Amino acid sequence: MRIKESLKKDPIETPKQLRDITHRVMDLLRQMQLLDARANEEEIISRLLDQHQNHGKEDPYALLEDEDVAALVGLVNGSGHNTFPHLSEGKMACETKLANLNEWRRQRDFLQQSIDGNDQEVITLYETEAENQHSIEAQIETLTSEIQRLDNLIHRYDIQIQEEPDLKYDTLVKLRPFFDDVAKTLLQRKRQQIETQMQEQLNILLLSYKGHIQRVEISENLEDFSIKIFHTAGNEISLTQLNAASKQIFIQVLLKILRNLGDYNPPVMIDTVMGVLDNESRDALMQEYFPQLADQTILLCTTSEIRKDSDYKQIEAFISKTYTLQRDVALQRTEVVEGYFGTPLNRD
């Protein structure tokens, strides 16, 4: 549109127009005796045409008529309204209605039969519900009998109910709100440290999102306690969608952080240390987790969890003692022997 406007201010003559203008000007100059008789009209026109072609202001949009340009100007200057949100809402409403279409048709047929006097379907529905009622009543009777049986079994035991008031218990009940307030205060003090350290550990150990945990958020109160993790892309990573191995890594990281932020240094004991972890997750735990977990860590495992030829060698330098429980089926006893399933601890 800008090019068209500039060309209107500086119009470009066609060769025919240029020839006609040149002929008129030369006739006027001859009449006024201002033109040399030797002047060649065709030569002058040819030179003007050459200059016109080299002028550099050709119209690249010559295919557009003035009406077309005016229509384009109207489109640009006119006000528009985005109808997509309205159409999207209408689409969603139509999809919901289509999903319920069969149910509505069934209701329509049912009402139509009622109007026509054909109540056979109503009778069939009544008979079905009556059968369901009898079945449920039978289940209630069975469950009532089972409750009575269990109640009689419980009363076989001589349980002495203390009738005297327990002052210590009553005092603890009264102190519960105090302890809840203390727990909330401790959570507020440690929350930022827990969030920061969990982010660092998850970026190392949670291989499915390694290096892409942007932040960890912990709720401010214990009544509605929750932990959320967020990807560097900004979206929340749902804990329920993590696989079993990732959930195990998450719990072990939380255990480590809570222990590190405590005011004392207790030993840590872990049973079934590997569970369903893959080889990469195993290596991460062996190298980054267990050696730094606590001053004293006790691992209860089998050779399928900590393999002797690979996993055991990675943490052997950090091990103080190893024991193996050997079951004697014939004697019905279990013996404790030193070493990890026949492999003695390398003290070097």
Labels describing this entry:
348 residues, mainly alpha, 3 domains, two-stranded parallel sheet, 7 strands, elongated
Molecular shape: elongated
Helix-strand string:
HHHHHHHHEEEHEHEHEE
Number of domains: 3
Q: What is the strand arrangement across the widest sheet?
A: 1-2-3
Overall mean pLDDT stands at 81
**Main sheet record:** 3 strands, antiparallel
Helix content: 55-70%
- Any low-confidence stretches, pLDDT <50, length ≥5? none
In short, what is this structure?
With 348 residues, this protein is mainly α. The protein has helices at 2-9, 15-31, 41-53, 66-77, 84-99, 101-116, 120-154, 167-205, 244-260, 279-293, 311-315, and strands at residues 213-218, 227-231, 236-237, 268-271, 297-300, 323-328, 333-338.
Explain this structure.
With 348 residues, this protein is mainly alpha-helical. It is built from eleven helices and seven strands. A three-stranded antiparallel beta sheet has the order 1-2-3. Helix 8 packs across helix 9 (244-260). The two termini are 86 Å apart. The model has no long low-confidence stretch (mean pLDDT 81).
How are the secondary structure elements laid out?
Layout: H1 2-9, H2 15-31, H3 41-53, H4 66-77, H5 84-99, H6 101-116, H7 120-154, H8 167-205, E1 213-218, E2 227-231, E3 236-237, H9 244-260, E4 268-271, H10 279-293, E5 297-300, H11 311-315, E6 323-328, E7 333-338
Parallel strand pairs: 4-5
Antiparallel strand pairs: 1-2, 2-3, 6-7
Helix pairs in contact: 2-3, 8-9
